[in-house]
Amino acid sequence: MNVLSLAWKGLRQRRLATALTAFSTALGVGLVVAVGAVRSGARTAFDDAARGYDVVLSGPKTTALSATMNALFHVDKPVDTMPVEAWLDARKDPRVLHAVPIAVGDVYRGFRVVGTRADLFDAIPDADGRPLRERVAPGGRLFADDGGFEAVVGAYAAARTGLAVGASFTVTHGLEDGGHAHDEQWKVVGVLEPTGTPNDRAVFITLSSFFHVKGHDRPKAPGAPDDHDHDHDHDEGGMHEGGAAPDDERARLLGDEVWALSTVVVRLKSPAFRFQFAGDWNRRRDCSAAVPSQEIRRLFEIVQGVDGLLRAVGATVLLVAVLSVLASLWNAVQGRRREIALLRALGARRAHVFAVVVLEAVLVCALGGVAGVAFGHVGVAAAAPWLLAEVGIRIATGFLPAAVYGGIAGGLLLLGLVAGALPAWRAYRVPVARHLHPVD
Amino acid sequence: MAAPVVELRDLWRTYVLGGHEVHALAGVELTIEEGAYVAIMGPSGSGKSTLLNVLGLLDRPTRGTYLLGGRDVSALDDDDVSAERGRRLGFVFQNYNLIPQLDVVENVEVPMVYAGVGDHEARERATALAERMGLGARLGHRPTELSGGQQQRVAIARALANDPLVLLADEPTGNLDTRTGQEILGLLDELHAHGKTLVVVTHDPGVAARADRIVRMRDGRVERIDVNRPAGATS
Ligand SMILES: Nc1ncnc2c1ncn2[C@@H]1O[C@H](COP(=O)(O)OP(=O)(O)OP(=O)(O)O)[C@@H](O)[C@H]1O
Ligand SMILES: [Mg+2]
C-alpha cells in the first residue's frame, strides 16, 4: 500500500460521485477527440476525393468551388456550361494525361447521373490510389464511349437503389427531385466496388447517350455563336494548336449531338503543373479552371471556424467537468475531515494529505480521459458509416497521432491538478485534534 | 528507576472563547517512566482529553515544555510533529476510528506507509500484529464486518505498528460491553507486561484500577497521583 493506493481507495469509496465526475470529464474529452478525429478524417477523405482531379474546367461563370463540388462530389447547383472545343484543346495540351468531359443534369432516385467518357475510369483513382477501371465488381464491365445507353453505377448508389448488372432504368430531368422522367432506358453493365470517394454515389452513363435524351435541348455554349455554323471562330482562345480540324475530331469523338459540357476533369502528367495549367486556362474566355486541392484547402479554412466552435464547446464541457471534480472533492473533504485528521494522527504529513486529494482529482481526470478517448473513437466509428452514406466521404476511424493523446494526457493532468488544489488546500488545513475528538 | 519517556513542565493550553480565556491545561507537571501504565481520571471538563491531545502531539501547548523520549517536541514544525506522531506514538480511540474502505491488514499498515516502511515488511508486520491481537481469521475483513471488540483490536494493532514509545488511549472501552471491555483491558495488561508504556484516559475506576498509577486531574492541573503498584512492577 502507498499514498497512491490510499487515494484510489478513497475514490472507490465514493463510486457514484467518482463515476459522475469522470463521466462529465469523459464527455468533454470525447467531444474534443471526436472533433479532432472527424476533422483529420474529413481532411484525408476530401484529399482522397480530390485524387486524380488535378484541374477541373468549366464555364467562365462557374466558380472554382462550384466546379469542384460538381465534378468531385456530385453536389451543388448546375454549373455554367463550357464549349466542347475547349475540351478538344485540352486533350492536346502536352501537360495533360487525361481530359474527361462531363455533362450533368439528370438524377436517378436522388443520385446524380454523370454523362462521361470511359477514360474517366483511367483518370480517377479510388481512395487507395487504384484506378476505377480496376474496381469494377465481378460480373460487370465498363461502358465503351460508343456503347449507347449503358451505365456504370457507384457502389453506394447501387446498394441504395438496387441497380445491378442487367437492370434497366430511366432518369429524371433536373438535379432536384420532382423533374419529369425521360423516356429513354439505360442498361447497367457494371457496378463499381466501394471506392471511399463520392464516386460511390454517382450513376455514370455514356456522354453520347446523355445528349440523345429528348429535352436536353442544345444549350447555348458560352463563347459559341447562337447558331453554331461549324466555322473556326471559336478558336479565339488561343490555346488551339491547329492540326486536324476540330470539328472532324469532334464528330469522331462525340458525334454531333454533344454541344456543351458541364465540366472537364483534367488529369495532368504531374500535379506540379496544376497552377500553371489552371493559370493558362483561366486566361481563356470560354472557360474557367479550378484546382480542387486548393478549393478543398480553402473549404477547410472556412470549416475551421465551425471546428473552433466545436472545440470551444468541448473545452466548456471540460471546464464544467473540472468544476464538478472540484465541487465533488470539496464536499468529500468536508465529509472526510475526520478521516483526514485520523491519517494525520497516524503520521501523515500535511503534504501527504494534500497529495492524496490532488491524486484523487488527477485519477478522476485520468479515468475520464481514458473513457473520453474511447467515447470519441466509438462516436467517430459510429458516425463514419453515416458520413459515408450522406456525404460520400470515408472517415478514417483509426487512432490519432500519439502527440494528440499526449496533449490530452498533459491537459488532463493540468486540469486534475487545478481541480484538486483547492479541496487539497482545504484538507491541508484540517485541524487534527478537533476532528478526532468531536465536542460531545 | 526507569528513564522518563514523557516529561511535561509547566504546560498550558489556553482557548480563547469570545474574548474569554479558558485554561484547559493550567501548568501541568507530569513525568511518565518507561514501561509505566498510567490512568488519567478527573471530572468532566478537567482537561483529560486536552492533556491526551497534547501528549499525542495532536494539539500544541500554548506554553510549557514537552520532552518525548528526551527530545523537546514543543517547538517542532508541522512535518516533524507528523513524523513523531507516526513513529513514536500510538493512538486508540473510544470510537476505533478505522478507515472504512481498508481491510484489517491495510488499516494496520497505514502508520507504516507514512513512516516509509517498505511494502513487504509493512504487510508482514501488520499481519503479525493483527494475528497477535487475535484477528488471524479476519485479516481481509472491512471494519463494518467486525464487532466493536474486534475493531478495537485492529485499532490497538495499528497503534503498535511502528512500535511507539507510548500508547495513548482515550476511553478505549467506552463503546464496549463489559465482557468485551475486559478482553481489551486484558490485551492492554499484556502489552504492559511486555514493557509497553501506556496512558489511558478513563472515567471508569475499574479500568483505572489496572494501571500502576492514577493521575487525577482537576481544573487543568494534576491534583494528585495515586500509586496502585510500584512503578515498573508487573502484575
Ligand atoms: N476546542 C476547544 N475550544 C474551547 N474550549 C475547549 C476546547 N476543547 C476543550 N475546551 C475546554 O477545555 C476544558 C477541558 O476540556 P477537555 O475536553 O480536556 O475535558 P475532559 O476532561 O476530557 O472532559 P470529559 O470528561 O467531558 O471528556 C473544558 O472546559 C472545555 O470546555
Ligand atoms: Mg474528554
Report on the architecture of this protein.
The complex is a heterodimer of chains A (440) and B (235). Chain A has 14 helices and twelve strands. In chain A, α1 (3-13) packs across α12 (350-390), α10 runs antiparallel to α12 (350-390) and α12 runs antiparallel to α13. Chain A has two domains: 3-46 and 304-436, no CATH class; 55-290, no CATH class. The radius of gyration of chain A is 31 Å and the shape is elongated. Mean pLDDT of chain A is 82; it is low at 220-244. Chain A has helices spanning 3-13, 15-49, 64-73, 84-92, 120-123, 155-161, 207-212, 246-254, 274-282, 292-335, 337-345, 350-390, 402-428, 432-436; strands at residues 55-58, 82-83, 96-108, 111-116, 150-153, 168-169, 172-173, 186-191, 203-206, 260-261, 263-268, 288-290. By secondary structure, chain A is α+β, with helices and mostly antiparallel strands. In chain A, β3 (96-108) and β4 (111-116) form a beta hairpin. Chain B is α/β, with parallel strands linked by helices and 235 residues long. Chain B has a domain at 4-99 and 163-227: P-loop containing nucleotide triphosphate hydrolases (Rossmann fold). Chain B has helices spanning 48-55, 78-88, 104-115, 119-132, 148-159, 178-193, 205-208; strands at 4-17, 20-33, 37-41, 63-68, 71-72, 89-92, 166-170, 197-201, 213-218, 221-227. Chain B has a six-stranded mixed β-sheet, sandwiched between helices. In chain B, β1 (4-17) and β2 (20-33) form a beta hairpin. In chain B, α3 (104-115) packs across α4 (119-132). The longest helix of chain B is centred in the last third of the chain and has 16 residues, at 178-193. The model of chain B has no long low-confidence stretch (mean pLDDT 92). At the A-B interface, α1, α11, α12 and α14 of A face α2 and α3 of B. The structure holds adenosine-5'-triphosphate and magnesium ion.
